[in-house]
Specification:
- With about 375 residues, this protein is of the alpha+beta class.
- Strands 2-1-3-7-6-5-4 form a seven-stranded mixed beta sheet, with helices on both faces.
- A hairpin with a 4-residue loop joins β4 and β5.
- α8 packs antiparallel against α9.
- The N terminus and C terminus are likely disordered.
Length: about 375
């Protein structure tokens, strides 16, 4: 069990330390760097007006044209960012800037919000926690009456928003694409809190394990925890700046009513920042706590060995003294060698010496210090 945990921690360290693929130096701006042989992107669309909602999975980008109109709002979700042909057709249809498409494909972007002539480009990160932290870039393109979202793979946390659209609850179908973008971002940020709750549970587990063991196997896991929290910090901090830009930068693509709702997202992002900073401090405390416990128990071991050594030094002296075997018949040599019951007397003297030292150590309080490690080992075995 412990070995598997160490291997999982090492695997996570390797994944977190990877450098994502980038353009070669000197590549032209707007170059799409995609891996060959990737499956086609999955296009899923929802479009609605005052009277009806249409939901469909599309095979081609051209199938979107009938659903675009001045009184309709359309949301297109694209799963997969390695289909160059689909990306270029979407860029032509919605007049998406080449640099925007480049940032969609290169999924190493920091959270940000950029205003272009025909659209607003927003980059966020979606989190998953399955034993280890997983991140996925989600790109939002907000235009006049349309919203396009790009995800790296199938599966997201937007099902609650889809149900609201299907059932027409609230005002999500009465407002425009900017409000839909807010609703999706709000759900995405709200899903950060369960992930951070899992980290809170991990901290409690680590504290218990640190107090129960002196094994150094915990160090890779604590190091992985710290690196994951550093990754979270790099995501959460610029996320608030992007939301501030959305709520303050004047543009007709974001209505005044939506800006009011974006303030709530900013509050949530600020709370996330506080939690992440608190957990980062706790992770440093875990490392210090682990090293302190290991050092304390090592000191207890040394104290026990010192007490044992102190007891056996005079006993070794006595046994060495009477083990020299000088001829007792010569003058000046040991007369005790022919004394009746000398062996038993010597054992008694050695017992008195050991008992006297133990009593002395007990009166000084040294036995309670050194004996703690023995009691701790007994409790762990029980």
């Amino acid at each position: 069990m412990r070995q598997r945990a160490v291997e999982a921690a090492q695997k996570t360290l390797g994944r977190l330390g990877q450098i994502r693929k980038r353009h070669k130096p000197g590549a032209a701006p707007g170059t799409l760097l995609v891996e060959p042989g990737q499956p086609p992107a999955r296009l899923w669309m929802m479009a609605w007006d005052e009277h009806q909602l249409t939901e469909a999975e599309l095979e081609r980008v051209d199938d979107l044209r009938p659903h675009l109109g001045p009184r309709r709002v359309m949301w297109l979700n694209v799963d997969g960012v390695s289909d160059e042909e689909t990306l270029r057709k979407l860029g032509d249809l919605f007049h998406i800037h080449r640099l925007t498409l480049e940032d969609v494909v290169n999924v190493h972007q920091r959270p940000k919000a950029e205003l272009y002539p025909d659209h607003y480009f927003i980059v966020m990160n979606m989190l998953r926690y399955n034993d280890t932290l997983e991140t996925e870039q989600v790109s939002f393109l907000v235009g006049d009456g349309w919203l396009v979202t790009f995800q790296e793979r199938v599966g997201d946390c937007f099902d609650a928003v889809r149900e609201r659209l299907r059932q027409g609850r609230g005002q999500i179908r009465q407002l425009g694409a900017d409000y839909l973008a807010y609703a999706l971002i709000d759900v995405l940020i709200d899903h950060y809190f369960p992930v951070l709750e899992r980290y809170g549970d991990r901290f409690e587990d680590f504290e218990e394990r640190i107090l129960e063991t002196t094994s150094m196997d915990l160090l890779p896991e604590i190091r992985t925890l710290k690196r994951e929290l550093n990754l979270l910090r790099r995501i959460v901090w610029p996320q608030r700046d992007a939301l501030n830009a959305l709520s303050r930068e004047p543009t007709p693509l974001i209505s005044a009513e939506t800006r009011v709702y974006l303030r709530d997202c900013i509050d949530h992002a600020t709370q996330l920042m506080d939690l992440v900073e608190t957990f980062r401090e706790l992770s440093s405390g875990l490392m210090d706590m682990h090293m302190s416990v290991v050092s304390h128990r090592m000191n207890e071991v040394v104290q026990v060995l010192t007490i044992i050594t102190a007891i056996f030094v005079p006993l070794s002296f006595l046994t060495g003294l009477y083990g020299m075997n000088f001829n007792q018949e010569l003058p000046g040599n040991m007369p005790e060698l022919n004394t009746p019951y000398a062996y038993e007397v010597l054992l008694g003297v050695m017992a008195l010496v050991a008992g006297g030292l133990l009593f002395f150590f007990w009166r000084r309080g040294w036995l309670s210090m050194g004996g703690g490690v023995l009691m701790g080992e007994r409790r762990r075995r029980d």
